[in-house]
Design goal:
alpha/beta, TIM Barrel, eight-stranded parallel beta sheet, binds NADPH dihydro-nicotinamide-adenine-dinucleotide phosphate, binds the ligand O=C(O)C(=O)[C@@H](O)[C@H](O)C(=O)CO, Aldo/keto reductase, oxidoreductase activity, acting on the CH-OH group of donors, NAD or NADP as acceptor
């Protein structure tokens, strides 16, 4: 594993694990195989309805609790201050843990315009020790700036859509300059075909690895933390091992150049998209 990223008070492993579809006993089994492969950064959300599965997997892993960074996220329908507070408490109760390591606002929902009070609830919950670190997801620079201007507290993480057809160059630079860690959701493009791109296939053949591993190595090389999801123990192992693959500057640039104006997976521009 390469050195951990440490732009802020939070250090993250180079690659985390997406738990989007991990539920129930099958989810716990899948999480335990992911832990065997070495994953310690886990991405969950109130809306995934699996904070219980993730918490139980951590509690039954036989691995010291402090090795894990358990993440969850506040849904858009709970941005009002009092609702945000009890939702964070509910997230924590669902995990069965005594704290959540990283808690994010899932989407800014700018039209609703309550993300600043949601942020105040996260700050308060951090002060109460319920959560250790606070960040956001799908925030644009204007949203990040408003949080800092109105509360004086900058998010430590922004988790955004990011894959080779949507490389988010400006956001990655913006975050880096401000010490905000960029996490990449759907880092493999969630089956959108990017791993069959001829450029990525050619680079993969040169390294004798799969295209998915090259995509994950590209994220790591850009200082981005990908959180790939896989139900397959074999692919879980391959994915986390991708942190060891070294790409040349030219290979990194070739992959970044695959970005497309319409590269998003779905119509989810955070400036207008709303998710509750
Ligand atoms: N903050 C936000 O708004 C969002 C956050 N997320 C987070 O990001 C995580 C990951 O994103 P997700 O949308 O799941 O998409 P990913 O880009 O992680 O793609 C997941 C898909 O890729 C397949 N896959 C995984 N590894 C490989 C491999 N080595 N080779 C070939 N195929 C592979 C998986 O299949 P298989 O299981 O068969 O291996 C699965 O179908 C989510 O689980 C969630 O935690 C996601 C969306 C939005
Ligand atoms: O999965 C998540 O975290 C989301 O925020 C979803 O919106 C996700 O992007 C999705 O399911 C889109 O259809």
């Amino acid at each position: 594993m390469t050195a951990s990223l440490s732009f802020s008070e939070l250090s993250l492993p180079p690659i985390g694990f997406g738990t989007g579809r991990a539920h129930g006993l099958a989810g716990i089994e899948s999480l335990h195989s992911a832990f065997d492969a070495g994953y310690r950064l886990l991405d969950s959300a109130f809306n995934y309805e699996n904070e219980g599965t993730v918490g139980r997997a951590v509690r039954t892993a036989g691995i010291p609790r402090d090795e894990f960074i358990v993440t969850s996220k506040l849904p858009g329908r709970r941005h009002a201050r009092a609702e945000a507070t009890f939702t964070i408490e509910e997230s924590l109760f669902r995990t069965g843990l005594d704290h959540i390591d990283l808690y994010l606002i899932h989407w800014p929902n700018p039209r609703v315009d309550q993300y600043v009070e949601a942020w105040e609830a996260l700050i308060d919950a951090r002060e109460r020790g319920l959560i250790r670190h606070i960040g956001v997801s799908n925030f644009l620079p204007e949203h990040l700036e408003r949080l800092e201007t109105e509360t004086g507290v900058r998010p430590v993480v922004n988790q955004i859509e990011l894959h080779p057809w949507f490389p988010q160059e400006a956001a990655v630079i913006y975050h880096r300059e401000r010490g905000i860690i960029t996490e990449a959701w759907s880092p493999l493009g969630r089956g959108n075909g990017v791993t069959a791109d001829p450029v990525i296939e050619r680079i993969a053949a040169g390294h004798d690895v799969s295209p998915a591993e090259i995509v994950l190595a590209w994220h790591v090389a850009r200082g981005v933390v990908p959180i790939p999801r896989s139900a397959s123990p074999e692919r879980q192992r391959l994915n986390i091992a991708a942190a060891h693959i070294e790409l040349s500057a030219e290979e990194i640039a070739l992959i970044t150049a695959l970005g497309r104006p319409d590269g998003r997976l779905a119509d989810q521009d955070p400036a207008v998209y709303e998710e509750f």
